[in-house]
């Protein structure tokens, strides 16, 4: 079995989990790390026991020993450095949100197609069993036809958080709203046709601290979503169906994450440590990157998510319902 040699761009908090997941993976090793300056890279390498520290992002990408990169940079840097990684022939696992809009996402995806490498949006929730259990219950008809999705995600960002910097791609929808969009698409099993959203923004800026959005799905489902980065923690969603309902609630502490899934009144807890989902993400990414076709959907899952995010932002700007663009638009 090939052992994939990973490089990490970024030294922020998420790297403690994402990098540790790579180290724990059965088919990978964390070979190198780079920060925005040499000292940050050196300090991260010492902290996490990584063999190589680089003077900067470019030096890491120029290392022929690196097979894949995990990019955990500020949102506004995703396009630039994902493109540079792809051009260097690296497979790219790119932290959410994949890009600031569908246009930028398409540029990265098309470059990856041309280069024959895999790019993927790093949504670690995909590797938490509770969400898949909820989806399976829906597919098995346990709640009848899913009709209404209601989700909420909030927490209080620190005053110096990068999430509060507009120029860096901050804001509630980018940071946590992307989860609610992804969960509703995943559980309904189709793409929405219309979006409607309202934002609470800092005066004189486009930085959204809160949002309330609605997505309409072609099969008749409706998703209502609220999120905030200036409210107490809360995370989860419920889905009402024609014959029942389910709820997924997320609880987290420093060591573990619990997804509490209640299906028609019966509750089951899915508990994992904070690193395990990142391990699974790294392993599965490497397996897919090593396939004869590393991106069999052509990146459509990435672009579909980006189109919905674009529609929500456009609705807020226009003050009304907006049609979500299709892949052929």
UniProtKB/TrEMBL annotation:
Protein name: Gfo/Idh/MocA family oxidoreductase
InterPro entries: Gfo/Idh/MocA-like_OxRdtase_N, Gfo/Idh/MocA_domain, GFO_IDH_MocA-like_dom, NAD(P)-bd_dom_sf
Organism this protein belongs to: Paenibacillus flagellatus
Keyword Secreted: no
MF (Gene Ontology): nucleotide binding; oxidoreductase activity
Any Pfam family matching the protein: GFO_IDH_MocA_C3
Domain called Gfo/Idh/MocA-like oxidoreductase N-terminal: residue spans: 5-120
Family assignment from sequence similarity: Belongs to the Gfo/Idh/MocA family.
UniProt KW keywords: Oxidoreductase
Gene3D superfamilies per the UniProt record, alphabetical: Dihydrodipicolinate Reductase, domain 2, NAD(P)-binding Rossmann-like Domain
Residue stretches making up the GFO/IDH/MocA-like oxidoreductase domain: 132-247
Coiled coil segments of this chain: none
